[in-house]
Amino acid sequence: MNEKSIWGHSDPSGVQKYVGKNRWDYLGEVDSEKTVRGLKPNFALLATIPVRGVMVTSRPDSRAYDFVSRFFGPRSGINEDPVTGSAHCCLGPFWKARRTGGVYGIDFMVPAGSGLSGT
Fold it and tell me: What global pTM score does this model have?
């Protein structure tokens, strides 16, 4: 299984900045909000990864937020969850460690098909 078949991106290695795993989920940081928004996951393939879910995040285009994110959990029965509080328990400290400005803890989740959903 390759990353292109999972994410629908032509060159995942060119946009991936960080990959890590906590007890339940994978966390991937990518190069831009555009990449986060443009992901078209293959949920059947994502469901084969033995984790609860996969978080994808990046710095935002707007300086009004510290990060943008999406959470995919097809193995848990939720293809994309637009308001995953447990993901933010991981994303908050992740971005705090990388903070270069902005207000800590403010983000926008960008679920596909629903525009922006502020959290």
Answer: 0.77
Give domain limits for the chain. Answer: 3-118
Q: Which CATH class is domain 3-118?
A: alpha beta
In three state form, how does the secondary structure of the chain look?
A: CCHHHHHCCCCHHHHEEEEEECCCEEEEEECCHHHHHHCCCCHHHHCCCCCCEEEEEECCCCCCCCEEEEEEEHHHCEEECCCCHHHHHHHHHHHHCCCCCCCCCCEEECCCCCCCEEC
Q: Tens digit of pLDDT per residue, the chain (119 long)?
A: 455 556 665 455 567 788 889 899 999 999 999 988 888 899 999 999 999 999 999 999 988 888 889 999 999 999 998 777 888 888 988 888 887 555 555 555 566 644 444 44
